[in-house]
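Entry, Tuesday afternoon. Goal for today is a structural model of the target with coenzyme A bound, before we commit to ordering more compound. Inputs were pasted exactly as handed over by J.K., no edits. I checked the ligand SMILES twice against the vendor sheet because last time a stereocentre got dropped in transcription.
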Amino acid sequence: MHRTFACPGFSAIWTPLFPARRPSVPGPEQTGGPRRPGSWCQNEGVRQGSAARLPSSLDIRAIRFEDVPEILRLIHRAVERGCRHHYDAAQRAAVYVSYAQNLFIESLGPLETVAAEEAGRLIGVAQLDPPSARLRALFVDGASQQRGVGSALLAEVEARARRRGATRLHGAMSLNAIPFYARAGFRACPGAERLIAAGVSVPVLRMEKALRP
Ligand SMILES: CC(C)(COP(=O)(O)OP(=O)(O)OC[C@H]1O[C@@H](n2cnc3c(N)ncnc32)[C@H](O)[C@@H]1OP(=O)(O)O)[C@@H](O)C(=O)NCCC(=O)NCCS
């Protein structure tokens, strides 16, 4: 059985106990309006700005069982860098552990897990739970963030969800990633605002995006 959380297994609690900053979710006019076709793979999920920085050798492919140790290391670096201003050390460790304890099994299915590979090195990973059209994970290695890799992985997940007939993609998003998802067309939606990862409460924001056929 898969755990209930999606993305970095984050959940949201907006209380003094976890005084994480909650970024405002911008409206369409602040997110650049309708997304333009991206240059990378002509995939509509990739914005022009980040696409321009994408490594030309980037390959997005399904993960293999033997990729898992390298992916876990990149998840650790992704969380330590990308989440450091919004989550404390215990929360970041809990998120990492929640993936570490399941990813070997999950790599065998039924979740769809894809990795971004650059010059033989894995630099990002994303996970889709097809039946629920839920984005369960999206991580880009610390040193590779802000280069369009996350957008490319998200576009792949969106394409896979669409192919399975999903009309929306949703997830429990980490607070640091809210601007990223807002720019990709996601909006806040109802749902639990915290998750328990390895016994630690982790704030998140539930977000969703309508998928065009
Ligand atoms: C969130 C994450 C997946 C984004 O991936 P990325 O490769 O760094 O993002 P991209 O380079 O594709 O960014 C796409 C756009 O979003 C913007 N963006 C990305 N992260 C942002 C942030 N934290 N704040 C504001 N804008 C952000 C970029 O500037 C870019 O805009 P542009 O195309 O206009 O230039 C990555 O930073 C990460 O792994 N973070 C740590 C783990 C995490 O929180 N994962 C999400 C779990 S729900």
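Residues 42-210 form a domain with the Aminopeptidase fold (CATH 3.40.630.30).
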